[in-house]
Amino acid sequence: MGRDLSFLEELNPSQREAVTAPDGPILVLAGPGSGKTRVLTYRIAYLLTARRVSPFHILAVTFTNKAAEEMRSRLEALFGDRVGELTLGTFHATCARFLRREASLLGLHPQFVIYDEEDTLEAIRQALRDLNLDEKRYRPGALRAAISRAKNEFIRPEAYPIRTYFDEIVARVYARYEERLRAADALDFDDLLLRAVELFEEHPDVLARYQERYRHILVDEFQDTNTVQYLLLRLLASRHRNLFCVGDEDQSIYGWRGADFRNVIRFREHFPDARIIVLEENYRSTETILQAAQAVIRRNTERYNEKRLVAARGPGAPITLYEAFDEEDEAAFIARRVQELIEAGRIQPGEIAVMYRTNAQSRALEEAFLQAGIPYRLVGGVRFYQRREVKDLIAYLRLVLNPHDDLSLVRVLNVPPRGIGPATMARLSALALQEKTSLFAAVEQAVAGAPGISLGPKIRRALADFVERVRAWRADRAHLGVAELLRRIIDEIGYAEYVESLEEGGREVGGRRWDNVLELLKVAGPYRPGAFEDPLAAFLADVALLTDVDTLESDEEAPILLTLHAAKGLEFHTVFIAGLEEGLLPHSRSLDEPGALEEERRLFYVGMTRAKDQLFLTYAFRRYDELRTPSRFLREIPRELLTPAVARTTARSPSAAGRSRRKVEREEAPAFTPPSPRFRPGLRVRHPRFGEGLVVECRPIGADEEVVVMFEEAGLKRLLASFAGLEVLS
Ligand SMILES: Nc1ncnc2c1ncn2[C@@H]1O[C@H](COP(=O)(O)OP(=O)(O)OP(=O)(O)O)[C@@H](O)[C@H]1O
Ligand SMILES: [Mg+2]
Where is the UvrD-like helicase ATP-binding domain (predicted)? Predict the structure, then answer.
């Protein structure tokens, strides 16, 4: 490895100080776009060159797999293949690797499967069924949250504190859920971290080995680590104490998932000798964007240090603000502007991003993009790995890896149809429960003619054939690449014909499902013997740990639609943030709680600071039948930094023309004489979606009426009479 240090010239003095700092704990606290991620990458480069540290001794943790990949390719560009030995990935991926290596010590199956969020919910649903509890009464999502909280506080099911009836249910479901996971050799996301802590706490010799290996530990997006992750870092770093963390408390946006930006304070307490480095130059955004973002974040009171951040770039264009008539008009405006930007040809389409608070907002945007004929990339939504055909085939692979994975077996036992109906399934489940075995073991017993279960000859033959095939795939998987194995499975079960039969049902257009199968084969391609010790295990671990952002194809040149949460760490030439309305951003769930409101503000701050050159902010006058109030965050931006977008008179598509006409009508509305009001306080009304409620306030708006209604279920809503479809009851 050469000693070429010319990369240091691409850093300013404080960045260079961080990159070339001597050993010891280091904390880089700095605002967005100040080069934290660059500093972290260059620190690794510096360790490799100037300090001659072997990549084997370096562990770097990123927030997404995509960020890890980018960092790896940057380092490979500098150093070539030798960085291969570097341990680089998310906390979860890294822990999964540790656990696979040390599985025997923890009594884990080395081929354990990882349950993603959907699998976890399904396992909870099954636990509810096992306990004869109604999943409509006990929401699986709420149970999962409670179980996850307990796990992260190291509370076992037996010790779950019971204060309410719901706690009692949680404790029972938690216990059953754990049994199910154990029987399936499965770990959920929480387990990956917790079992790693357990590994290190209970096996000091193992800990010593890892401490010795990872002499340098580096962490990006440190403000979004949770307590368990921090504990892991402390354990691993306590010997060499070379912990290099970069972060920004103002960008902490995963509090709802257990992230705790007080880890920054803990770090300073645990490592009082830590060198704190601040970076004060922002290289990403124009001065205008930066000033607006800072004016917003300054309103937060929960801040530990006000960071100075100066724009390295000039003022640039003002921020554009657009008041749309409704969500369709908003989407049409964005699509139109995106099209203009692309047609102007000065920027790549992939340099444009549209961000929003909730996934539901993407629908209107997708429609507008489709209508305008603009290809786009969507982060989230129905993800590739959540599509039915992809899930089916992955379930087959998981079964090959580990036949005791009950969830996968349930998924594929009758896919394609083999005549195994719900009644047979219930009998097999009962047998498994009674014998305390996995479902696959129960199937094997049933095939062998176990006394506890009687099956018709046809079903038995089908099951025997299934067991036989799974065994054969298992026997052959050692010398097959994952793609080859997949092809064999697809052939033997007749999956192509099955997919075709689904398509004929007209549920999906033009062979899209089969395209997904081909795409999966492509993704599996590199997982070959030789390239990986255990290609199948590696493939499945990678698939389970993919996050929304990771599935973004970076080579595709199209604008991106994504949530604000998914946008952290990224940057774009032009950013649109849609839905700047009270109740959406800030989200209605945050309005009663100051802490949550500040997290919403940080989220907006993260969104704004993704923009390099241009920022568009939009909100709607009416959304989903309701009148909206512009977000308080908009008022926090100095007026002189904003410029209103001029509504267009020349619309491209006929429907967009219709929409802008409606907008014009609204603007002219005050010219009409208001008709006599239909509503008055005290009136009982019914709304098609919100149900029954009581009118508490009304006032004329142009030719229309604004009605405030207290609905029994939906709470207080402001509605526009002409659109609301309110029926007067009394
Ligand atoms: N010294 C520098 N000279 C020129 N450009 C720089 C310099 N440092 C960083 N940059 C560029 O500024 C942009 C922001 O850098 P980077 O993404 O590392 O910031 P960050 O602090 O990690 O931001 P965030 O908090 O949003 O994650 C990148 O495009 C990076 O290449
Ligand atoms: Mg960064």
Answer: 9-286
